[in-house]
Amino acid sequence: MKKQVYVISSLLIVILIAIFVLLNMEDTAVNFGFATIKMPLILIVLVSLLLGALLIFLFSSISSFKNNRQNKANLKEIKQLQSKIEELEAKIGVETEVKDEKQVTEENSDNEDEEK
């Protein structure tokens, strides 16, 4: 069903573009300052559209590149912080075990004292 909707919408867009082309076939003068060129209006519109799309692609590529670089730096920092967390958890675990052993030893000695 999605494929049919895609095909039908694509055909409608192509038909609309064809109608737009037929309506804009008259020659139009474009003044570049140093020269004036006559060309069909549709070519002017399409060239402008393509140049705009190219500029958008370039600017978004630059932004995407910066974001990817920042993401890599963030991932590296996350890995470093996770290893630091694991290191600290291991250290706390050792200290907790030592405290638990002391507590058990003290309880045992208290129990022995009470028995005597």
TrEMBL record:
The keyword Cell membrane applies. It comes from the Bacteria. InterPro entries: LapA_dom. Keywords: Cell membrane, Coiled coil, Membrane, Transmembrane, Transmembrane helix. The chain crosses the membrane at residues 5-25, 37-59. Residues 71-98 form a coiled coil. One of its GO terms (cellular component) is plasma membrane. Residues 24-86 form the Lipopolysaccharide assembly protein A domain. This is Lipopolysaccharide assembly protein A domain-containing protein.
